[in-house]
Amino acid sequence: MREITELRSMKTRRTDATSAQETRAPTKGRTARRDQELLFDADLVDLPQAMRWREWMGRVEAAIFASPAPVTREALAKLVGRACNFDDLICDIRDELRARPYELVHVAGGYQLRTKARYADAIRALNNGARAGGPPQLTPTELLTVTAIAYLQPATRAELSRLAGREISRDVIGSLKSLDLIAAGPRAPQPGAPYAYVTTKKFLEVFGLASLRDLPDIEKLEDAGLLQCSANEIKLDGMLDPRDKDAIELVEDIDEESD
Q: Which GO terms describe its biological process (predicted)?
């Protein structure tokens, strides 16, 4: 009987000790983070102004280089002092990279270093798994489909088929999903409740868009006669393909004319 009582007592003490450790652990974690923040000198007030600016540039570029995904402005701002004009810093980094085969871009809500489009063929020729910046190679139907989803989202497969004037197969949808360019969104309030598809953050990243607001203005394209009024005749092929120089120049011309 005494042994059972002692076991219960030991169990209770261990439970109390574990609870106490769990209670203290977050405190230690918070303390460690606070100490780390205190050790990291973002302001660099001891450095001359020119050296301080170069150090801030190096920090921001290194952080972006090391990240597998775009880094937000808010995250990068923690690496520089309160006296830093972040926009000027980004401009200086871009100027310094101007002659390099890669550039600093603002995509998917953050900053990312990516190779310039004109070097894509050279990177593909290596065939060693390296991937050039920009979208993957898509078939014309896949490019039309992802472009249509970008403008119409959420859009069902039936709606995409009506727009394209031909059936958009499940294989096309599956291919775009496997590339993480689109995802299933809400079910449409239609008979059978089919899935409606939306673009992803990866879509913004590979097409070099900071947000969907950066999509070429479809009304400007219509006004310029680049799109037909009939849904079945709308020509969206290539509108998002950065490798299509004609499409890019047309959009840039339209933007300049509207300014």
A: cell division; chromosome separation
